[in-house]
Structure formats: C-alpha cells, structure tokens
UniProtKB/TrEMBL annotation:
Pathway: Amino-acid degradation; L-histidine degradation into L-glutamate; N-formimidoyl-L-glutamate from L-histidine: step 1/3. Contains an active site 4-methylidene-imidazol-5-one (MIO), which is formed autocatalytically by cyclization and dehydration of residues Ala-Ser-Gly. The modification 2,3-didehydroalanine (Ser) is found at S143. Keywords: Cytoplasm, Histidine metabolism, Lyase. Pfam families: Lyase_aromatic (PF00221). Its main location: cytoplasm. It is found in: Cytoplasm. This is Histidine ammonia-lyase. The keyword Lyase applies. Its EC number is 4.3.1.3. It comes from Macrococcus equipercicus. It catalyses: L-histidine = trans-urocanate + NH4(+).
Amino acid sequence: MELLLTGEHLTIDQVRQFIADKGSVIVADEAVERVKVSRKIVERIINERETIYGITTGFGLFSDVLIEETQYNQLQVNLIRSHACGVGKPFSQDVALVMMILRLNTMLKGHSGVTAELVEQLVFFINQRIIPVIPGQGSLGASGDLAPLSHLALALIGEGRVYYQGEETDSAAVLVQLERPALKLQAKEGLALINGTQAMTAQGVISYIEAESIGYQAEWIAALTHQALNGITDAYHENVHIVRNSQEQTAVAARMLDWLEGSKLTTRQGEVRVQDAYSLRCIPQIHGASFQVFRHVKEVLEKEMNAANDNPLIFDQNDETLVISGGNFHGQPVAFALDYLKLGISELASVSERRIERLVNPQLNGGLPAFLSPEPGLQSGMMIMQYAAASLVSENKTLAHPASVDSIPSSANQEDHVSMGTIASRHGYMMLENTRNVLAIECIIALQAAELKGADRLSLKTKKKFDEYRAFIPSVTEDRQFHKDIAEAAAYLRQDAYKA
C-alpha cells in the first residue's frame, strides 16, 4: 500500500496495514508547501538574528546562551551526538519504523521549521527500510523522547547504526551503498527531530495493534475452554449485557455466542450446574472492560500521531508569524493512556490463568484427568504450564505499576516535571508478551481438554480453530518440552495482528 501522509489524518489502522503490506509512504503536496513556508520563517529568524530557543540559543538550561551565527548548524549536530545516550535492548524494527513515520507526519503539519531535504531523507529511510537501531531505555518522556529520537537522527546523518536487509550495520555504509548522501542538519532541525513523543507513541501504537488482536484471540481460546468445561451459555444472553450499558461488554457476549453456536459441549443453566465460575461466566464483563480501555487508548494515540509536539512551534497566520516556546513535547497524556493500556492487557492474562487452573485441576475440570496427563503420576501432563502462566501473571502485576506517577527533575531543574511515558510504553509491551504467552498456554491446554471431551462435538467455528492449531501443536500423548509449543503458539497468535 501507499500511505499518504498529510500531518492530519494518520490512523492506527493505516499503520497496521502499512506494516502488513510492507508499504511505502508518500507526502501530500500541500504538506510539502507547509514545510517550505515554516522553513522560510526559520531562515528569516537566522538572517535577523532573533533570539529564539534552539535556533539561535542553546538548549535546556543553556537557553539563555546565544550561539554564534556560524555555529547554528554545528549546534544541531552537537545536540544529536550528545543526546544519543540510550541504553538497553533496542526497540523492535516495527517500532523504529513507526517512529520515523510519526516524526515525519508531525513535521508535515508545518510548525517545525525543517527543510524539504529532511522530509525527503525520512521518506527515503522509511521506503528503503533503513531502520535505525534505537536503544529502548533512557527517555524521561518530556522535552521529547530525546535519547531514542537522537539515535534515529544519528542514522539520518550517517553516524548511527541501522538494520538493513536483515543485518545490523553502520548507516554510513548503507548510504554509500545506495549512493545517498547523509543529511546535513540545518538550523533548528536537530531539535525538530528529537523534541517529541514519537518513541512512546510508536511503541504504544504497536502495543495497541497487538493488544486489540490478542483481545479477539482470547475469545475463541476462552470458547474452547468453555466447551471443555461444559460451560453455561445463558450468561451470554444479550438481555444481561444490554442492561449494563456497555457496548464492549455486549459485543464480547455476542461474539462468544457466535463462537459457541452449534456446540454439543455447552450446557444451559441447571443442566450440570446453576452457575459457572466468574472466569467463564464473566468473560463479557472482564474482556469487555479491556476493550473499553483499548478504545480510549486508541483515541489518545491517534490524536498524538497527528499532533505538533516539538518546540519551539512556528505559526504563519493572518499575515503574522509567531515562534512560540511551549511544552507539547511533554508526554503526560500519552503516559496516562499507556499506563491504562497495561491494565487492559494484564486482566486478559489474569482471567486466562484462572481458566487454565480450572482445566488442569481435577476438582474443577468436570472429570478430565488431573493436569490432563496421559498417565497421571508417571507423566505430569500440563501441571507446570499452569505454574508458568501464574508466574507471568504475577510479573505483570509488578509491571502494571504506573510509570506516570513518577517524575525526576532534569537539566538543573529547568525541566522539573517529566512523564516517564516511554517507560510505560516499554513495560506495556513486556506485559503484552507475557499475556500472549499465557493465552498460548491456555490455547494448548484447551485444545487437549477439548480433544478429551470430543473435538467432534465442538462448535463449527471453534472446530476450525482446533484443526488450524492442531496442525502444529500435536495431541499430548506423552510428556514433552512444552516450551516449544508455547513459543510456536505465541508466535502464531502474534501473526494475526498483521494479517493483510
């Protein structure tokens, strides 16, 4: 696909499709014109030697230090080099790619004062899939994601590390190979590249895409478990959910009934028991609440994806130009949303682990073998998979602590309150991976339990899923190394988020 960037209308669904299709970006003509207008204002500031933050002055506490005219461009290069101090495991290539798209999109709003050459360099890197290696740790989430975005900028000027055609290498070598000159930063451009929330927002976008997908995946996995435990369908009746006034809860209940339609393993209230445990009966309420979280997070992220969030901002309106130092780089709105996302993700894992326990516990699983063991005693069966799920759920509880409640002053107290939103984004994705592994475990165990109850009695839709996953997760006839099954199931679940 060709993704048209205007600075105004980028959506998460477009980003997901772009990744799935291995697409390319193009820039709207009117956006290019806005970039050129804002650049002319920067050039006027330079010519008239106005005192404007980050253009003719230093940064942070050095904002009152005037820079010599001959050093304006060097100031920007120095900024990038000194701020590129990220550490730790790099962001994924998908996140780094989205980071470039988002940084480009905000520049196209025409408030950043960058050159057309910088816009063209970003387009080239995106479309050639020259992906900067961007360490994941080191951002406070205010004054922009300074360290991560500096590593992005280093790649553009030929001084960073990149992934290209499956290998990690120097960006300078790739640019030589492609006969592409390194970008020469002009006044304001280094600051325009790093003052923004694109690291936390890009990771948030990827987390949202995969979280929404795993929310839907959790429903058919839960439907398998529901049938293996001869669950009651009455609790999903639409009357129950309509009176709760929750669109998401009602939708989950409807989808659960759809997954279970035609099953010979489900029951009605009073046939086997009057009520199911909450982990079955309250799936619409619990999963629906997670979808409420996802809806809110999507709204916040899409606003930020199309926001001007660098500093200073340039305005050309009513025959008047304004250059204003503000704080749109502060990540607080995104930080709150990403901490909220962590709650929605964690509960999908928490309730899944409770369903796992019901499947393997002989006191709760309705006559299935203890731990679904093919030879109870001699073979442990699924016993320790529940341990693994419990461990992941417990780890999620520690990661769920809101990063946004913390703040440490920086730049000699000039920047005295920060969002820590990038920490929230990283922890959220860690929780997502944990949750996906928990659901992979439930999937594997539910497949076995459903087989023991009679796979031919499953609903038509869940039988199709049963056959799909049985193609690479064989029936358990003896103990084996289940970590391989878990990894394969989790990877397969992740693929669903990016299906074209």
